Amino acid sequence: MTVVQCWDDGVTSDLRLIEILRQYQARATFNLNAGLHGEQRQTIMRHRETDVVRLARGELNETYDGFAIGNHSLTHPRLDKLSPDEARRNLAEGRDRLQQLFGRPVVGLAYPFGSFNCTAMEAARETGHLYARTTRSAEQPFPPEDPMAFHPSCHVLAPDFGARYERARARPDGLFYFWGHAYELTTERMWADLETVIARIAADPLAQWGDLAALFEPNAR
Predict the structure, then answer these.
(1) Is residue 221 scored above 80 in pLDDT?
(2) Could you report how far apart the first and last alpha carbons of the chain are, in Å?
């Protein structure tokens, strides 16, 4: 079974998350909004009484060294509310800026807010993305019917995370794909539980960490 994971928004909580991932040699993709990272860190909201702080632009290369980068659009709009031209422009510029910043290809997309429609899917395709992740949990076979509507197995905090993992593990060519935001881990217990999950996957003889983009490499352009 291949296990892939991705995390959104480029926040300071990723620093703690990455320490755990590196300890267990776990691969991950981090989806970023190139137009929202400024010269300084910025508090962007409160989540469960905790400030959520976006990383500064100058921190990104060092922070995500060794991990895959995905596009999360330029400015995190609801793509299903934009015109076709606006959606293409936001996705294309977001992807281009990330590629310039990191000096490597960015081929994956995570839809902001998980919002998408036919217009967003076509914009994702036209701007060179090989896949686009939704937030709809699904136990679908791989490859998906349309890679521009790539549904993950579940959110990292899903109450049935373990059951979904076991069902994927039981399939001969199983793929288990989870996602989340590091800022959602607001207690020491939640961080400990995440480390337990990562450690368990790393130690599972039937599981291997995979790279999202590599899943679609035969279709690379």
Answers:
(1) no
(2) 26
- What's the domain count of the chain? 1
Instruction: Give the rounded distance of the alpha carbon of 173 from its chain centre.
Output: 22
Mean pLDDT over the full length of the chain? 95
Alpha helices in 57-185 (DSSP H): 60-63, 84-102, 118-126, 161-170
pLDDT score for 172 = 76
Q: Give the CATH number, domain containing residue 17.
A: 3.20.20.370
| Domain, as residue range, for 199 | 2-219
Contact 154, 137 (CB under 8 A): yes
On the 0-12 / 13-18 / 19+ scale of CB atoms within 10 A, 174 is buried
Give CA–CA dist 76/124, Å, rounded. 14
- Average pLDDT of 177-196? 98
Q: Contact, 47 vs 11, CB < 8 A?
A: no
Q: Is the pTM of this model over 0.90?
A: yes
* Reported confidence tier of residue 22, pLDDT bands at 50, 70, 90: very high
Which SS3 state, helix, strand or coil, does residue 15 take?
helix
pLDDT at 92: 98
* Burial bucket for residue 148 (CB in 10 Å: 0-12, 13-18, 19+): buried
- Report the C-alpha gap between 144 and 24 in whole angstroms: 28
